[in-house]
């Protein structure tokens, strides 16, 4: 028997149910017709089968007659029927009621190592690394050795291992065919780091006898720096002819040699001789790098006796027409010296100038914040803290930055913010220091919160930190005995 699938649908030619179907139900497989709910206009049947539905003959005749009678009538849907169908779709869907027992878990705090973006190398660095990796294996050994730090430092170690009665030329002769101009500058500096100025002088004398290696300002500057650092420039440092020797040297020496000599004198602690060298360079119209002035300034500001020289160097550095060669670390060093000299306006001016050319570092921000705290401008210092936290290059703060920020929060009376910075500091992998706890305890003591002071003392003791004895004795008197913690 063929399967019949009948559904209520709209077809191109409507088939009106006969009167006999509406009065006496005809059993059609797959179609359910409810009495009283179908009309001659609303019932339409489409059959998907190869044979027709077996209606009785009288029903077929009645259907044919009614079809002819109702051809001219309107076969559309009435307004009541459309409203009834639309009401079925307007009924709202049943929503699942919320479960009161289900608790929403709070999102975890972001981890610093996951929120910070990794620092990718610059494109130029990538190109250099790729070129070095591809060409290093095909280059001859002499080209690879003349700039290889491992090879040049290895020569310095061989020279250092020689017995005292042997000269450095016994090692250098074996590697002479692999050396080029400028190669021995790293060897001489390494001998200086080892504390062997005599071996560095022997290396310079051997290089002077090699026509393919000398003259070379890089080798000469490295040797002069090592000799000046270890007080081996006897002709320049002799008391009788120091001025005449410097006057003869300054006009003819190269800038690299003069800067190496000045930095060597600074490392040796000869501030007066370095100052004399800078004066002669200015008289002869020789311009030295700003880094030399910064090194001398920092060395002079170590003691109070050198504050006058440091202030003069700050003014001299400010009078220069351009200081674009000032590195970020040198700029930060000048700011620290100005904070010692209480020249806070110079710190702000230098900070504003540097922001026009580059992005300040965490150390520079910390120095300016400390300067504003020393000046008493705590609100402006906190505004700079927020600016530093928004800077992309300052995503990770260091220990001095946290120390300055905690002291600033205590000075503002915002102790809860200081505690939050301590927690953030521990999340970043740093351990709070004793002076941070001292500052916090003093702030809570001034606010009269002795219970919080007792809690902080216990935390510091559990961390193995030694707090200020005077602070602990004062707290013990206020709380009521040394065992009250």
Automatic annotation (TrEMBL):
<feature type="region of interest" description="Disordered">
    <location>
        <begin position="60"/>
        <end position="79"/>
    </location>
</feature>
<dbReference type="InterPro" id="IPR002885">
    <property type="entry name" value="PPR_rpt"/>
</dbReference>
<protein>
    <recommendedName>
        <fullName>Pentatricopeptide repeat-containing protein</fullName>
    </recommendedName>
</protein>
<dbReference type="InterPro" id="IPR011990">
    <property type="entry name" value="TPR-like_helical_dom_sf"/>
</dbReference>
<feature type="region of interest" description="Disordered">
    <location>
        <begin position="90"/>
        <end position="117"/>
    </location>
</feature>
<dbReference type="Pfam" id="PF13812">
    <property type="entry name" value="PPR_3"/>
</dbReference>
<feature type="repeat" description="PPR">
    <location>
        <begin position="361"/>
        <end position="391"/>
    </location>
</feature>
<keyword id="KW-0809">Transit peptide</keyword>
<feature type="repeat" description="PPR">
    <location>
        <begin position="398"/>
        <end position="432"/>
    </location>
</feature>
<dbReference type="Pfam" id="PF12854">
    <property type="entry name" value="PPR_1"/>
</dbReference>
<keyword id="KW-0677">Repeat</keyword>
């Amino acid at each position: 028997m063929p399967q019949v699938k009948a559904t209520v649908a709209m077809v191109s030619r409507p088939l009106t149910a006969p009167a006999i179907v509406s009065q006496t139900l005809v059993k059609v497989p797959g179609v359910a017709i409810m009495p009283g709910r179908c009309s001659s206009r609303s019932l339409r049947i489409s059959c998907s089968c190869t044979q027709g539905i077996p209606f009785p003959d009288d029903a077929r005749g009645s259907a044919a007659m009614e079809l002819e009678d109702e051809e001219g009538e309107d076969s559309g849907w009435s307004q009541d029927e459309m409203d009834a169908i639309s009401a079925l779709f307007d009924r709202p869907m049943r929503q699942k009621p919320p479960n009161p027992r289900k608790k929403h878990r709070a999102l975890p705090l972001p981890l610093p190592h996951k929120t910070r973006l990794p620092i990718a190398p610059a494109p130029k660095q990538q190109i250099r690394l790729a070129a070095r990796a591809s060409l290093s294996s095909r280059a001859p050994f002499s080209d690879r050795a003349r700039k290889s730090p491992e090879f040049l430092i290895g020569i310095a170690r061989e020279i250092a291992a020689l017995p005292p009665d042997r000269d450095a030329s016994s090692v250098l002769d074996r590697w002479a065919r692999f050396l080029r101009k400028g190669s021995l500058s790293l060897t001489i500096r390494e001998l200086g780091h080892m504390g062997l100025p005599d071996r560095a002088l022997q290396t310079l004398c051997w290089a002077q006898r090699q026509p393919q290696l000398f003259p070379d300002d890089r080798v000469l500057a490295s040797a002069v720096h090592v000799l000046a650092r270890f007080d081996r420039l006897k002709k320049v440092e002799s008391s009788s002819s120091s001025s005449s020797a410097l006057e003869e040297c300054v006009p003819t020496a190269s800038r690299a040699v003069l800067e190496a000599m000045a930095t060597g004198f600074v490392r040796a602690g000869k501030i007066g001789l370095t100052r004399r060298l800078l004066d002669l360079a200015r008289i002869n119209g020789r311009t030295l790098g700003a880094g030399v002035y910064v090194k001398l300034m920092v060395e002079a500001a170590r003691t109070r006796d050198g504050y006058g020289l440091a202030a003069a160097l700050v003014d001299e550095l400010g009078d220069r027409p351009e200081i674009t060669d000032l590195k970020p670390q040198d700029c930060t060093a000048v700011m620290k010296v100005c904070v010692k000299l209480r020249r806070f306006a110079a710190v702000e001016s230098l900070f504003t100038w540097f922001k026009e050319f580059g992005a300040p570092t965490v150390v520079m921000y910390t120095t300016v914040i400390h300067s504003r705290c020393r000046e008493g401008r705590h609100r402006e210092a906190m505004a700079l803290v927020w600016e530093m936290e928004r800077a992309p290059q300052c995503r990770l703060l260091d220990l001095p930055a946290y120390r300055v920020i905690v002291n600033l929060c205590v000075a503002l009376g915002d102790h809860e913010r200081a505690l939050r910075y301590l927690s953030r500091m521990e999340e970043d992998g740093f351990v709070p220091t004793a002076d941070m706890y001292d500052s916090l305890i003093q702030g809570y003591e001034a606010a009269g919160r002795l219970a919080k002071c007792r809690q902080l003392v216990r935390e510091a003791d559990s961390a193995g930190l030694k707090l200020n004895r005077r602070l602990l004795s004062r707290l013990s008197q206020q709380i009521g005995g040394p065992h009250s913690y």
